[in-house]
């Protein structure tokens, strides 16, 4: 039963991520990359806070839908924004290799923080809420990006 539930959850996330990427692209055209990224990171921060209150499988599927929606959008838009910040060069492979390494390091740091908080508090709920700090920090960092740098 739980295996089927996880498979359904993964399918929901993957399918909704496509819709999220399309809608994020449209929002980016209308509002710009950085404001859209700020909004999506805000959704992630709220998502982390709401995850604390999940108690039913239905809640889990609703949260998986939201996660898929914003995950698809933020991945596509962050790569697009990064590409607009690159200098004029023929060697984009080096820059995107750096991007991929930085992404993997971010995943490791996030998972380590999650695991450490879970071990200290004994609650994965507390660990998820603490992850909201990463998204709030990213909002403050994104506000420092100059609009002219990503308006290409």
Q: What does this molecule look like?
A:
The radius of gyration is 17 Å and the shape is globular. With 152 residues, the protein is mainly alpha-helical. The protein has helices at 2-31, 33-51, 57-85, 92-121, 124-142. The relative contact order is 0.14. The chain has one domain: MFS general substrate transporter like domains (Growth Hormone, Chain: A, Up-down Bundle), CATH 1.20.1250.20. It contains five helices and no strands. It starts with a helix and ends in a 10-residue tail after the last helix. Helix 1 (2-31) runs parallel beside helix 3, helix 2 (33-51) runs antiparallel to helix 3 and helix 4 (92-121) runs antiparallel to helix 5 (124-142).
Q: Which terms would index this structure?
A:
152 residues, Growth Hormone, Chain: A, 5 helices
What is the CATH-assigned architecture?
Up-down Bundle
Number of helices: 5
Report how far the terminal alpha carbons are from each other.
Answer: 49 Å
Low-confidence stretches: none
Number of strand segments = 0
The proportion of residues in beta strands is under 5%
Radius of gyration: 17 Å
Instruction: Identify the overall geometry.
Output: globular
Average pLDDT score: 89
How much helical structure, as a percent, in the residues? over 70%
For the record, the count of structural domains works out to: 1
| CATH C-level category | Mainly Alpha
Please outline the major beta sheet. none
Q: What are the secondary-structure elements, in order, as H or E? A: HHHHH
CATH fourth-tier homologous superfamily: MFS general substrate transporter like domains
Per the CATH scheme, the topology name is Growth Hormone, Chain: A
Structural class: mainly alpha
């Amino acid at each position: 039963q739980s295996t089927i539930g996880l498979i359904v959850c993964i399918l929901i996330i993957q399918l909704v991520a496509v819709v999220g990427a399309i809608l994020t692209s449209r929002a980016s055209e209308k509002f710009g990359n950085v404001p859209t990224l700020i909004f999506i990171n805000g959704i992630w921060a709220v998502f982390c806070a709401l995850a604390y209150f999940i108690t039913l499988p239905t809640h889990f599927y609703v949260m998986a839908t939201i996660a898929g929606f914003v995950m698809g959008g933020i991945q596509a838009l962050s790569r697009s924004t990064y590409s607009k910040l690159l200098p004029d060069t023929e060697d984009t492979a080096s820059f995107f290799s750096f991007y991929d390494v930085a992404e993997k390091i971010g995943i490791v740091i996030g998972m380590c923080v999650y695991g450490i908080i879970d071990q200290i508090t004994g609650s994965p709920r507390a660990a998820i809420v603490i992850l909201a700090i990463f998204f709030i920090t990213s909002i403050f960092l994104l506000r420092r990006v100059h609009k002219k740098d990503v308006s290409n």
